[in-house]
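Each lists sequence, tokenised fold; shown next:
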Amino acid sequence: MITENNNYSITDLGYECIERNVMFANLNKNCNLETYKDEISKGDYTTKDVIVKRVVYADSNNWTYLTNSFLEDNTVWNEIGGHNLCEADDVEFKKTFPDDDDDKKIKFFNISQGAKEYFWAKGMALVTKLINKDNGNVVYINTEGYKYARYVGLRK
């Protein structure tokens, strides 16, 4: 699905788009991109392979806004992301997240068994890829199911 408006162009993908060696700073819940860049430049990061679920193209003005407001709830990457995907009827998931509704679990946590096994074995993260369409800069957003950018990854 492709959504376009004056601010963004959003493309939702399947679960087949894998990108390798994305650097995630060993900190989370920071408001701006510069904080993540600083941590990564110090070597304080973990490298992960990611499955890109959504691609968002933003012009430079919107890129600046988005990369300086990671802690604000945002529909651009709303609830897309995570490390622990599972079936909607997974008993352990229901114990861990008893207040989540079934629709949310199905939409964000239900993938094929083969993809799941690969995902778990490799410790991959499900992400939104944010691209500055004016200069090509890229960041990867893992919300872990929240509405804000909980983890931010970069490429070399």
